[in-house]
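Lesson 9: reading folded outputs for more than one chain in a single document. The general rule is that every protein is listed as its sequence immediately followed by its structure tokens, and records are never interleaved. Here is the first one.
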Amino acid sequence: MHVLAPDLPGHGARHAERFSLDGAVQTIVDAVRTAPPGPLYLAGDSLGGYTAQAAAAHLPADRLKGLVLGGSSHAFIGAPTIPYRARAWLFRVMFALGDERKMVARKIPAVLKEFGMNETDAAATLAAGVHMSAFPQAVNALCGVDFRTKLAAIAQPVLFINGDLDTNHIRGESAYTAAARDARIERFAGCEHGVSMRRSGDYARLVAQFVQQTGGGSSPAAH
């Protein structure tokens, strides 16, 4: 299995770029152009999962064989956006009053540890670039987008993976799976949002199983 994990705008090596959904979709399209010939899969968690849903229509339909979407079944239209908009506003205030780099250094190591990441992987993640400013940009990009409509246009099978403590995404799960043409669900017990980090081994196992079950091969991943 050949895996590509491109940095989306506002993330990693591209932290200086502003995140936009169009820019993220173009990132996936460009990554797929570099992939070896053969079946394609999109696998993403949270923002990566929404990006995968938006990108699917822009990929060769005869090569795209399926999507694996972690924490990507929340409605970003109307009242459900309010908590996200409020948190995004709080982030902007924090960045206006303080140094983002110091905030990352102070807060993110504990978050990564809480996610179950070992010290070596946490250090590599921080070195690659963690940028909290991408969060309000992502919220602005996702709010108002009807991802269920995008999902309804995807003919390929879709696997949703949610933690059973991820209330928002569990709540939206039935609407998303009803919109999809071919959807299946996996739940991680005792797990909150961020399944690919909190339960990385189990997440990878489900991706591999899904590829095998649907007869695929190579898998570009949107994160």
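And here is the second record, again sequence then tokens.
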Amino acid sequence: MYNLFITANCEAWNGSSEKFNVTRCLCEYTDDALKEQFSDLTDASIALLQQYPCLFAHEGSCGKPARLGYITGITKRKQWIRIEYRLDQESPLIPIDTLTQLEWDLDIKEWEMNRTHWALKEVDLYTALAHANIEGYEAKGPLSPVDIATSVFDVALTFSGENRVYVQAVAERLALLLGRNRVFFDDFYKPQLARPNLDTFLQDIYLKRSRLIVVFLCESYALKDWCGIEFRIVREIIKQREDDKVMFVRHDNGHVDGVFSTDGYIDATQYTPKQVADMIRERVRLKQNNIED
């Protein structure tokens, strides 16, 4: 999923906010199911929209390249909606000609680039850009499936279902950075996880065949049976004094047995999924360097 912003203001996307008429927001060029879910801009829907990456573009007449980033705030007043945003300074600009060529891949419809509006697209933005072989968005690693009963993963993610949207965005970004087959995220391997004795199967992956385990902590994490099964492995790893194999990301201050106030973590409320993925990649690289040494 990604947010698409298009404006006729040729000087836009150089600051930190931009305004759109409410009649142009999440109603044009957006599938009906997404309109129904997001157009009311409730607190819950705003929280989800801020987790999706954004493509900030101009109408075709401006001739300016598009940029990537994230929403940091949404304010609605009468007939206007103000979008506060943060640009991704590391992602390359996308020339207008390239964007036009990718209209089908990005679900940009006919004449849409000539209309100021905000739309929501059910497309994985980074994956679409990577598959288009745009410099700076190259996909890495094999695309063919691997047998997760024997594979070794650079990173495995454990999380509560309440944070699935956020974690999925992290996983998709990691798939581009490391290779999809190097990241253990349940949605990547649904057919292979449909098996008996899944609890012991998962424990084997987390304990023996994952170089780094990232735990997305929150109040609900401690209440979920499957999170409890996975966190038993984390506690065993800590007991073995292999702290460098564990990374904590917090969504709130909820208590989780075995996690203490002296434990370091990344605050998910302060960082986008892309930023968290980039920090995870740094930890993975450090482990790879230690293995090579």
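What the second record shows: The radius of gyration is 20 Å.
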